């Protein structure tokens, strides 16, 4: 909790720090009363007081206190004059506290000197600088539920629009019977999205950038049978190409959802090999200029044809060399954090173990 408070102090400038101070003091001292600024006359130099004791507080919280020592001294002098001129007849000023958000770094000795001068100049009982560390002590002397209430009330509000790609992966059917069903060979992928914003996110378009393409072949001579299927996104093997799909999908605030679609390509790939695409996916939503993105991922896009039968006379030296070089490159990318499905990694590792002379 103390770490959370320190972070809150560091993020609080101006009115936000004053609000934090007032919240804590209202719990700490039942006689403390905040002063709400009124129109163009403001608060007359008084950010909070304990009337029956003549105790007054004045808050100052610039972004950078070290760069604003002159400003702090000027505000201290001007606001105290306003405070005494307006409030003294209501409750004579006996104690004065200059509340400063020093962000736990301390303040200039010139500020201490100026505050002490006020004490002697105006015959005060007390005149002190009130630092963030003292506010921390006030907070953590409260009841546990009060501490939580203070910290929770200053949690930042979520942004209106904040869509994130949580995950992107190939959908693998573990059912052996379904694996044998060759009626639909499309590569299915799933996109997991999280709307962390406070407003509905309308997903408008999915775009997939082809960064690179590899073709791992088997040297089998296939008799091809076309398979009829409906696919959603068609990729090109050409580096730098972009495949786009217009969609209409709605995510409510703080909701997680999945979108599934199929990938295919016109590239003629070996049905028993691997046709690997290194891709970057972007999710365009609302009217945002920057899309939600995910790490680079390698997917195996299966061809829209199957082998009815094949003749295999063995691998040529060129095929072995090319496949091992391909496997090495992709596995190095995987080791560097690029997403690759386990079955693809297994196939590539097997090729790395293949003898150079078939």
Strand content: 25-35%
Q: Gyration radius, to the nearest Å?
A: 34 Å
**Helices and strands: which structural class?**
alpha+beta
Number of DSSP helices?
Answer: 9
Whole-number count of domains: 2
Shape: elongated
CATH architecture of the largest domain: Sandwich
Portion of residues within helices: 25-40%
| CATH third-tier fold name of the largest domain | Immunoglobulin-like
Number of strands: 17
Quaternary structure: single chain
The CATH first-level class of the largest domain comes to Mainly Beta
User: How far apart are the first and last residues' alpha carbons, in Å?
Assistant: 65 Å
- Stretches where pLDDT falls below 50 for ≥5 residues? 227-231
Order of helices and strands: HHEEEHEHEHHEHEEEEEEEEEEHEH
Mean pLDDT: 85
Largest β sheet strand count, sense and barrel closure:
6 strands, mixed
Looking at CATH, the homologous superfamily of the largest domain is Immunoglobulins
């Amino acid at each position: 909790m103390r770490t959370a408070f320190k972070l809150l102090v560091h993020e609080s400038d101006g009115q936000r720090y004053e609000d934090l101070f007032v919240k804590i003091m209202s719990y700490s001292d039942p006689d403390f009363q905040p002063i709400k600024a009124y129109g163009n006359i403001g608060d007359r130099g008084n950010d909070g007081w304990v009337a029956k004791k003549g105790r007054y507080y004045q808050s100052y919280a610039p972004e950078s206190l070290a760069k604003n020592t002159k400003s702090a001294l000027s505000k201290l002098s001007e606001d105290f004059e306003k405070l005494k001129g307006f409030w003294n007849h209501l409750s004579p000023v006996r104690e004065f506290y200059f509340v400063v958000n020093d962000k736990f770094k301390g303040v200039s000795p010139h500020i201490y000197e100026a505050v002490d001068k006020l004490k002697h100049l105006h015959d005060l009982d007390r005149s002190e600088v009130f630092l963030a560390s003292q506010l921390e002590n006030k907070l953590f002397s409260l009841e546990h539920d009060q501490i939580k209430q203070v910290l929770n009330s200053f949690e930042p509000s979520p942004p209106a629009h904040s869509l994130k790609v949580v995950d992107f992966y190939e959908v693998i059917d573990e059912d052996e019977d379904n694996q044998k069903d060759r009626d639909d060979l499309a590569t299915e992928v799933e996109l997991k999205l999280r709307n962390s914003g406070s407003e509905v996110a309308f997903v408008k378009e999915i775009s997939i950038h082809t960064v690179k393409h590899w073709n791992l072949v088997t040297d089998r001579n296939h008799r091809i049978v076309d398979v009829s299927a409906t696919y959603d996104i068609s990729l090109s093997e050409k580096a730098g190409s972009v495949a786009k799909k217009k969609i209409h999908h709605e995510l409510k605030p703080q909701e997680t959802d999945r979108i599934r679609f199929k990938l295919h390509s016109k590239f003629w790939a070996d049905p028993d090999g691997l046709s690997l695409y290194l891709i970057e996916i972007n999710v365009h939503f609302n009217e945002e200029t920057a899309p939600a993105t995910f790490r680079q991922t390698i997917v195996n896009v299966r061809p829209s044809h199957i082998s009815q039968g094949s003749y295999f006379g063995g691998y040529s030296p060129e095929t072995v060399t090319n496949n091992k070089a391909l496997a090495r490159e992709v596995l190095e990318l995987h080791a560097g954090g690029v997403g690759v499905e386990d079955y693809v990694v297994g196939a590539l590792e097997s090729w790395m173990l293949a003898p150079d002379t078939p």
